[in-house]
User: What shape does this take?
Amino acid sequence: MIKKIDHIAVAVRDVEKAAEFYEKVLGLKLGGVEEVEGMDVKVGFIPIGDTRIELVQPLDPHSGLAKFIEKKGEGIHHICYEVDDIHKALETYKAKGAKMIDETPRKGAHHSLVGFIHPKSTGGVLTELTQPADS
Ligand code: CO
Assistant: This one.
């Protein structure tokens, strides 16, 4: 059901500014900067092999992400697994007792469908599931 780690997300105050480390120091390339409708975030993806780092910047100062940065500073925010069937994944994990943030998928970046599992039932790791648009 889980195919791979789709991305590891890093909460940042400014996508382009944060990307400078990845580009200038690590020699990676920022691509696919997008404001995600309905989620009040700006994201930028940095491809690495078969996976990506997602830089995620809050656009709404009252959002959970903005509060996360305020409280903990910039840093790792969540891990995202690619699944082949997001509806089934959310249903299955809920049935197995996971505390879900999303019981039905919502729209993510690049027309994907995403859903989150609450860190309370994952050992403190906010966990995202995604089904890409092309699968
Ligand atoms: Co994500």
